[in-house]
Amino acid sequence: MSIWINLLDSLMIRALLIIISALCMILSFVHFLEVYKVVFQNGVENYPFGKEGPVPYYYKSEGLFISINLFWAIGFSSLGVFSMNSLKNRNVKRLSVILIFTLIALISWFVQSSFQEMF
Fold first, then answer.
1. N or C: which end of the chain has fewer CB within 10 A?
2. 116 falls in which pLDDT band (50, 70, 90)?
3. For residue 56, which phi and psi values (nearest 5 degrees)?
């Protein structure tokens, strides 16, 4: 009976690591894509930079927008690579650390995205 429980735990942990890796890499790709659109495609007209309506604080300028998106892209890609490495090496002990950092990153990302320019 305990063999099945250990197998189930191992499969659940692997599935969780795969989900965390995929989520982090998707978010990283989205943020890198935003930076690419603004920097290389010069797609500034599609973004409300300045004080045009209720927008998050990082739309204040192009530079701030690029910096914030690069920060999140590098952070999420680091978490994704870290979790894929743990999955490849079958290191289950890192799962709690990866999960905590991913949850902290996701909560921080949601919170900072909701801040709007006050003045």
1. C
2. low
3. -60, 160
Task: List, as one string, the DSSP characters of 5-68.
Answer: HHHHHHHHHHHHHHHHHHHHHHHHHHHHHHHHHHHTS--GGGS-TTTSSS-BGGGS-HHHHHHH
Contact assessment for residue 14 and residue 87, using Cβ atoms and an 8 Å cutoff: yes
Q: Hey, what are 10's tokens? A: 């191992």
Who's near 40: CB < 8 A, 6+ residues apart? none
**How much of the chain exceeds pLDDT 90, in percent?**
19
Q: Could you list the residue range(s) of the whole structural domain that residue 10 is in?
A: 2-114
Query: What's the pLDDT score for residue 119?
Result: 45
**Structural domains counted in the chain:** 1
Q: Is residue 119 part of a domain?
A: no
Of 37, 47, 44, 24, nearest to 109 (Cα)?
Answer: 24
